[in-house]
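Components:
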Amino acid sequence: MKLTLHVWRQKDAQTQGKMVDYTLDNVSEDMSFLEMMDVLNQQIIEGGDEPIAFDHDCREGICGMCSMVINGQPHGPQQGTTTCQLHMRSFKDGDSIYIEPFRAKGFPVVRDLMVDRSAFDRIIQSGGFVSVGTGAAPDGNAIPIRKEEADEAFNAATCIGCGACVASCKNASAMLFVSAKIAQLDRLPQGKVESKERVRSMVAQMDEEGFGNCTNTGACSAECPKGISLENIARMNRLYLQSSVSPT
Amino acid sequence: MSILQSNIPGGPLSDKWTQHKNSIRLVNPANKRNIDIIVIGSGLAGASASASLAELGYNVKCFFFQDSPRRAHSIAAQGGINAAKNYQNDGDSTYRLFYDTIKGGDYRSREANVYRLAEVSANIIDQCVAQGVPFAREYGGTLANRSFGGVQVSRTFYARGQTGQQLLLGAYSALSRQVAVGKVKMYNRHELLDIVKIDGKARGVVVRNNATGEISSHGGHAVLLCNGGYGNVFYLSTNAMGSNATASWRAHKRGAFFANPSFTQIHPTCIPVSGDYQSKLTLMSESLRNDGRIWVPLHKEDAEAVREGRLRPTDIPEDRRDYYLERRYPAFGNLVPRDVASRAAKERCDAGFGVNKTGQAVFLDFASAIERYGEEQANLKGISPSDREAVMQMGREVVSAKYGNLFQMYEQITADNPYETPMKIFPAVHYTMGGLWVDYNLMTTVPGLFALGEANFSDHGANRLGASALMQGLADGYFVIPYTIGEYLADDIRTGAISTDHDAFKAAEMEAKGHLSSLLSIQGKTTVDTFHRKLGKFIWDYCGMARNEKGLNYAISEVQALRDEFYNDVRVPGKLDELNPELEKASRVSDFLELGELMCNDALNRKESCGGHFREEYQTEEGEALRDDKDYAFVSAWEYSGDPKAPNHHKEELTFDNVELKTRSYK
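Structure:
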């Protein structure tokens, strides 16, 4: 198939960016979206220009490194799918595709479609862990955990930290990301011990990074490639309130 | 005597590690605060080592090329992690895990290292549970297990099909905690360019900030390479796009010996190649072989009809199918080790029974598992087994709970629904058992330079068993290096900070800049990827699942020619001092082009078949690998001579005092 691609090009965070148009022929429907971008980049390099910079690594939908807003949707049109797992059979011959970076105050553009998501690391550093040192662990079976709780904790833990929740939110809120970690650890006895301190410090860091607040639109969960549930946000808000009223 | 000192402690096998820990030198807490450790990579090995060393009080700097440490490729490991917990009461023990790993590695690994790995495996599970890793659990609240290839007990712990993700996020959380207290400093989007040696010891690194192009030096008392494997030499592999061998290779050029480079693992269950644009291959977890049955049509005419789309696999009756693993290996069936399963698939496809357009695929079929689980559920729920639709539906639900994310991934990539029609799979490069040579303390032949996880060679011999990579990465990082590094650092308590003003840093920086500038200045016509694809094809064709002398010699001359062409005709756009992804790739490929040749040399030198290394000249009449323990029970360790065409060969003889060397049989 033949495609017209409108791609955001921006040299760095300080320089103004713009959409640039490209035409790409002979695109196979079995290609992944990023393989299509590879082919485009080969064409650009052979034409003597600089290729489009975009983040990607595992290409199996788990590392969370790929991003891109495709036709207005983070990770493109297919639900529950990262950009790297999106395949060209989701498009048809003659389509125009608009490709932009994740846009949010907390995610400054590095170049073209690459953004800086290190704010997420700093949020985890503010409390997204259990304070246990290496070697200090009891036997793995010492604390039985209800299967349902373990499964729910797992569901929250499947967040890949890609930031699609932020990119899809009109407030650029990171609450789905933050709440997923808080809920995962709060559901497990190991993590519950520090829940109150954790929720306060992670929310404070989230605010400091410039992410907005939640107004219950639900775009984050709808666009999340891993289907992280909004219930996590409810749980986080509940914990935050409890922790504010009774801090210890 | 060999110049390779493995430093394996004396005493009986089961006491070696304990006694070693008791006699190893310690660094007191006040002195640890004055010692700086550099860690390259933030995967399971790098993150767990960084966190554990920081907890002890050392100052850690951790460098990685991804934008966040949580994205290291350990994250993509699917199936599970082994541990000799014997929670299933099925006779597992430290010895059995040790024995399975030694045998699975086809008797080409060190007994003492493997025993230690088995010994600490149980601690890893405890540590991860304490961090909040949500492992799968039984209804009673205890941890669940499943089986993996090459063993007859159930010792694999898992978190659905995303075990690597959950373990890495656990290590990442421990790391983040140390970043918060200032004991670890993180350098994202940074790539190692060189190891700096002063007075023969590793004393720092030269790195490039890929986001800005800035090149800088960092001093430290020890350097830990946790940069993973080199599977991307093949271009197409299950590795991440950025996975590379540069840190290992540059260390090799500075004196670290490279061990068994030809020992690469070709994983039997990956999604087949679909076209020339293919950028990577996707693994379908080995855990699928617990329930999936592998087959090809029994008759060539059926295979041909399937290839041409005239016949659906589901329409082929049982008596016209060849479940070749169950036929050839009745004792282990579909759960034979990876090397055996991969070769068997290749054998059937080479014989003309392949089932996709290219003839390079076999079926992995879940129909009988769906039926079996459905009937179990029907019995549990009191539903009549004659209601086939209800039975199959319940069976699909059980299979979905076990492998749902893998099935979904398969469907996204291929547009086929594996609940309805068998998956098509084919072997692909997945893991590299070879790596930097290390002693029992995980130190390379360069003092102060250590290698952990997939980056070293020590534990998996010529073939790695499933669910053992995660185990090894975390064992090295959490439970081995925190002890063994003390032995080396105890001499450094009075050294003081390592200044980067030393001439050695300046020289290494100049050299690194010079290399990158030379790549930029070629301004040829061919893109980096084109060279990388060509290299990968040579290595896959001649140093892949089957090797022979003629092919290896041919590949060596072709790789040498390709390297010359690369330095004459590569086109790298952009500049040195800015973000430049093509320059990053070119730098990595320049190393792969040398490492690829060493892999072929190593394969050529080893005139036997063992594990993943199958020399066609050395096989039994039934086509099984023919090992030569008399002449080849050694580790090949290659020394860089200054010329990639003429490496120096060293041997570490392997001694087996606790296991009897047998022909590996899974029949």
